[in-house]
Amino acid sequence: MTADFEDSEAFDAFYAATAKRLVATVYAVTGDLGEAEDAVQEAYVRAWQRWDKVSGAGDPLPWVRTVAVRLAISTWRRTRGRLRAHFRHGVPADVPGLSEDRVALVGALGELSKDQRQAVVLHHMLGLPVEEVARETGASSGAVRTRLHRARRILGERLADTSVVTERKGRVDHG
After folding, report:
1. pLDDT in tens, 49-102
2. How many angstroms separate the CA atoms of 42 and 66, rounded?
3. Which of 22, 41, 51, 100 is deepest in the core (most CB within 10 A)?
């Protein structure tokens, strides 16, 4: 038996023994079964990505539970903030459609590899430092830097080809 197979079996047994109870725990914290299930699923994914470290420190359940609860609370806080803003400011009078820039960006992001897209979103859109992106994705900092460099080159080429970016470069801001 290989170590990977043994790790997989140990993780599967751990998941089977703890998942339902963990969903119930997170559901009790959030009051939203869907959010609880999503948070628990993400927590197990993160645990699997770091299984050697998580399982090597003793019982992995406290680590997974902490991650799941933090994920659920983070989602709950974002949702609560959006609701507060909605009630405070009301429904926007006119919700604009997607801008041409956004459509071009989404299209260009779709041309990146999954790893490059993940690195760009985490680093440039969420503002995470390279080291945190590396921890989050399970890659080395050097690999993340390489992904970001290649992705920026691809995005630069794709976005330079769009008329939206070309028009924007020619504009002068008089504001």
Report:
1. 999 898 887 899 989 999 998 898 887 666 666 666 666 666 556 656 667 877
2. 12
3. 22
CA distance 34 to 51: 25
- Residue showing tokens 């590396």: 134
Averaged pLDDT of the chain: 80
How many residues are listed for the chain in this entry?
A: 175
Helix (H, G, I), strand (E, B) or coil at 171: coil
Q: Could you write out the DSSP letters of every residue in 136-168? A: HHT--HHHHHHHHHHHHHHHHHHHHTSHHHHHH
7 or 81, greater pLDDT: 7
pLDDT of 148 strictly over 70? yes
b/e for 95-124, b at 16 or more Cβ within 10 A?
eeeeeeeeebbeebbeebeebbbbbbebbe
Indicate the pTM of the whole model.
0.45
